[in-house]
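dumping this here so i dont lose it
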């Protein structure tokens, strides 16, 4: 059971806390527990320590899709350092956008460059929850 700020009581069989992000980094001693990173996703003052994903203090939404973008930049920069290159890739924070599927044929999306997108477009983008993309990325096959 949960109590809303308006005083309404809501009872549910299952409750998912799906809001807010507090990284489990208290042991690092930071204020809001997020880590400051350079544009190359390194910890300030460090040549070869990188941070990606929700743990970073990058001013953008904390989403798996963006963590994937962080990983691509960090991997490129680690490769550059191994190869002795000084020129590193800089990460550019991504404008807020969301794709919210509701089943395989519904939902709503928003992107600053496109505005609000309806169910058909949302289903085309994420109706399969990116399953095919992740199967390909992991070199795996679906078990059906």
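and the seq i came up w/
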């Amino acid at each position: 059971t949960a109590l809303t700020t308006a005083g309404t009581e809501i009872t549910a069989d299952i409750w998912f806390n799906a809001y807010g992000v507090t990284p489990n980094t208290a042991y690092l001693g930071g204020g809001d527990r997020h880590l400051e990173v350079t544009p190359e996703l390194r910890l300030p003052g460090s040549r070869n320590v990188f941070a990606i994903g929700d743990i970073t203090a990058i001013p953008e939404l904390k989403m798996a899709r963006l963590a994937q973008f962080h990983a691509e930049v960090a991997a490129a920069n680690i490769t550059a350092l191994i190869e002795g290159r000084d020129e590193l890739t800089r990460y550019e924070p991504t404008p807020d956008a969301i794709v919210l599927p509701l089943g395989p044929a519904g939902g709503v999306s928003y992107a600053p460059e496109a505005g609000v997108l309806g169910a058909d477009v949302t289903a085309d983008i994420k109706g399969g929850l990116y399953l095919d993309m992740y199967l390909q990325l992991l070199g795996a096959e679906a078990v059906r």
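The mean pLDDT is 89.
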